[in-house]
Amino acid sequence: MSLRANGVALTQGIKDLQAAWYQTRGSWRDAKAEEFAERYLADLPDMATKVGLMINELDNVLRKVKSDCE
Fold first, then answer.
1. CA distances from 28 to 4, 21, 49 (A)
2. DSSP string, 9-60
3. 3-state class percentages of the chain: helix first, strand second, coil last, to nearest 5
4. Is 70 helix (H, G, I), strand (E, B) or coil?
5. For the segment 26-56, what is each residue's pLDDT rounded down to a tens digit?
6. What is the pLDDT of residues 5-29, one digit of tens each?
7. CA of 63: how far to CAs of 9, 10, 12, 54, 70, in Å?
8. pTM, two decimal places
9. Which domain holds residue 7?
């Protein structure tokens, strides 16, 4: 699997997690749910975006290295 494919898989995984969390929040509405969301989920979209950008940069570098070695 290429780095770009891994980036796409990461993005899809975040979307799937957000959908599952939205469904879970329908029945879990206490303070612990808020704490969980803040502690584990709030920063995921921003972190995924940053990781995606890093994956793209790394993929570009590896393509250039491969091209230079051919």
1. 35, 10, 27
2. HHHHHHHHHHHHHHHHHTT--SHHHHHHIIIIITTHHHHHHHHHHHHHHHHH
3. 85, 0, 15
4. coil
5. 999 999 999 999 999 999 989 988 998 999 8
6. 888 898 899 999 999 999 999 999 9
7. 20, 20, 24, 14, 11
8. 0.75
9. 3-69
List the helix and strand counts (H, then E) for the chain: 3, 0
Per the structure block, which two tokens stand in for 50? 């940053």
Counting the structural domains of the chain, the total is: 1
Residue labelled with tokens 């899809």? 12
Write phi, then psi, for 43 (nearest 5 degrees). Answer: -90, -5
Using the structure block, give the residue that is written with the tokens 């590896």. 62
